[in-house]
Amino acid sequence: MWHSAVLLALCIQISRGFYVPGVAPVEFAKGAPVEVKAVKMTSSQTQLPYDYYSLQLCRPRNGTLYKSENLGEVLRGDRIVNTPYDVHMDQGVACKLLCHDLANPIVWNEAESREVIDRIKHEYYVHLLVDNLPCATKFEMMDTHEQVYERGYKLGYVHENKAYINNHLRLILSYHTDDDVTFRVVRFEVEAASVDHSELKGTVDHCQFPEKHSPQELKENGQNSVLFSYSVDWQRSNVRWASRWDIYLQMTDVQIHWFSIVNSLVVVFFLSGILTMIMIRTLRRDIARYNADENLEETLEESGWKLVHGDVFRPPRYPKLFTALVGSGVQIFCMALVTIILAMFGMLSPASRGALMTAGILLYVFMGLIAGYMSGRLYRTLRGQQWKSAAFWTATLFPAFVFTTGFFLNFFIWGKHSSGAVPFTTMLALFSLWICISVPLNFIGYYFGFRKQPYEHPVRTNQIPRQVPEQVWYMHPVLCLLMAGVLPFGAMFIELFFILSAIWENQFYYLFGFLFLVFVILVVSCGQISVVMVYFQLCGEDYHWWWRSLITSGGSAVYVAAYSIFYLSTKLEITEFVPLLLYFGYTTIMVVTFWLLTGTIGFYAAYLFIRKIYGAVKID
């Protein structure tokens, strides 16, 4: 019975994950109600989102109604709820009180006032929605005088150590129409102002305040009385509905992005060409000399990588762990590739709220079939016998690490009463996706992969292992790790900056075409640098390349970790313990994931390279 309930819940969650509200154009008649919804409050200083009504703000008279959200929205901390703003299509409002009258303002006690002041000091932004279009605040750059937009509006501001709340909003809405009968919302701007409640005059529906007014100060000690008001301005626009997201997607400097991407591509292609030319010329000379009939003994003494032909395919230590890590890397690679392709074709655009994260999670779950197959066949090649326990390791090792880390961090988020805390039902849904779908698919793939014929090796393995001579200093594993990570990191560090900005500074990321190109370059550079490092290792007669290829080719993850610390110190202003713990916790997950991805790419490139070169030489 419980199996049916779990499957039903999973089907509902999956259907919500791929259903994107508001994708089709919504048409309004003149005077029709236009609903204003609140999403959350966010701050780049605390990284802790909060529900809109976590503060004592004006609530709708008919009660609050939360929207049913998909998996990605819940994990992002979105809590979409209705608000008391009364807005109608193409009908302006000069000034109107939100939920009270002039004689009865909202009264915050000392504890509530301190909570609001704390949010203002941490520069929290409030995010509203109209027709799935987020609000934006326009401001002018000081140096270029260029008008740019940022998401949301500030809850308040601090001046001379005094906190002031933005209690008056001017909602500037733009519409597009072709026939003056049906209207579509194409822009949503907000101008926030702080107005002392004592200077508001008039009635509930027709309030007014002087042009030069005093701001609404909040006192930490004692009560605070606040009136909330708003005005609505409608503007006709030539922007069509299909282009209404342009101002949000232009919040980043696209020219710098273009220049950096092109520069990275040129450098990576140039270095990759040099490496490829060196490797091909060196290998051709080595193989030609080795296959020559004369002076064979002298050639063997000069060419170190041929001397280990009887040990190069000797299975590594801990084959279960090795194949489990490789299988996890395959699963991550397939998930990332398909997700980027879907996003590149516009199926997971920022307008599809939460769809990117939902698609990534579900694709990772179903890619367990491919991961199990690849890991099972590799385990069979390494002469493993206990395929069931090996399959269990592959299915649980990396997900258990992510789930345990996330569960640990979730306790601290719960303690802060943040909307970023994952609800228990969502955690149960994620756990069910893992146990009921990912693990069985992994076992099925492992079963068929283990039954498949192992990979054929061109040379036989000796019974007695060869002694590895002392290696030169620059082939130390740590130095190899650092050297191998430079090139892949150089290919993607600009894109990493934009990704980190999207994650930690609440910005949109939308250049998935560039991301796909960088992903391809990352795969190529990881494969090539892994081939070079393994070739140098074999030339030193060190045939323990299995683990070295996996670890070394993932060396760019070290630079990702270092860059994340640099980004934290230069771009973010996190000072509290819990936000720092969240940053380092999620960064650890990201670094480990990136290491598995790049390490797996490097291993398979080195494996194919070794099979190719030993298949080209004559072994008696």
Automatic annotation (TrEMBL):
Main subcellular localisation: Golgi
One GO CC annotation: Golgi apparatus
Pfam families linked: EMP70
Signal peptide span: 1-17
Keyword Nuclease: no
Membrane topology per record: Multi-pass membrane protein
The keyword Zinc-finger is assigned to this record: no
UniProt keyword terms in alphabetical order: Golgi apparatus, Membrane, Signal, Transmembrane, Transmembrane helix
Recorded superkingdom: Eukaryota
GO biological process terms held by the UniProt record: protein localization to membrane
Similarity comment: family membership: Belongs to the nonaspanin (TM9SF) (TC 9.A.2) family.
This protein's name: Transmembrane 9 superfamily member
Annotated source species: Halocaridina rubra (Hawaiian red shrimp)
